[in-house]
Amino acid sequence: MKPLTTLLASGALMMTAATAALANDAVQTIREFYAVADARPMDAKAVRSYFADAFIDHDGHHNGSHADAVAGVYGALADGAPDSRHDLAMVLPSGEDKAIVYWRYKGTNTNNLFGMPSTDPARAFDIAGIEIFTVQDGKITEMRHVEEIAKLVETLTGEQ
């Protein structure tokens, strides 16, 4: 009976390792994506290249291509706050093809971020968010996310 137990345990270990390897591909893709998205000047084509053509932003309200819309958001962040950066506090594998990211996004509104006028002195912001990405064949196919948008607006406008 001992050889069967050893065989089953070995098989379970191999499946766990294979699942972790696949998930780590998603984690690696997402780490690379954020490095490109936070590079300045930002290369919009490079950011867009991480999204599959059929990418779905489950929490967005986009008409047309979700990939183009989300890539545009990262471009607007770079334009409105050129010093902004994501601090990736956690990038964790989940299942075979997902990465869960907890980040802090910090920067200074020096160029009318999302239409909110910059002030003198410019207002710095520091918000948190969480995202769940699905990655297949090195492309982001799905995204779910929550950010402290109300805190961002309050910080940049001074309104509650």
Please supply descriptive tags for the structure shown above.
five-stranded mixed β-sheet; 41% helix; globular; alpha+beta
Give the overall silhouette. globular
How many E-type strands? Answer: 5
Distance between the termini: 68 Å
Oligomer: single chain
Which secondary structure elements does this structure contain, and how are they paired or packed?
Layout: H1 2-37, H2 44-48, E1 51-57, H3 66-80, E2 85-94, E3 98-109, E4 123-136, E5 139-147, H4 149-157
Parallel strand pairs: 1-5
Antiparallel strand pairs: 2-3, 3-4, 4-5
Q: Can you tell me about this structure?
A:
- The protein is of the alpha+beta class and 160 residues long.
- Helix content is 41%, strand content 32%.
Summarize the model shown.
Helix content is 41%, strand content 32%. The protein has 160 residues and is α+β, with helices and mostly antiparallel strands.
